Please model this.
Amino acid sequence: MSGAFFPGSHVLLQIVVRTGVIYLLVLIGVRLSGKREVGQMTPFDLTLLLLLSNSVQNAMTGPDTSLLGGAVAAGTLLILNYLVADLSGGAGAFDA
Model:
């Protein structure tokens, strides 16, 4: 039962790395689509994002289905999003 809540530290590190790679790939894909704001997206674009999130979920967590693994993936996404938003606020490199 403890594996369901507390996977090993090497598993958690793998989740952080996997989540970071997936986040960057999806971020690059969205930026290449040319949409700068959610308001510019069509319903088809939003549907694509939802389908992408569902399809890459297993790539982020791998075989780990623990509660802590999901929390680590979610925390990694939130931290990466905060960092990208913070960087894009002051640097022109992130502007499309």
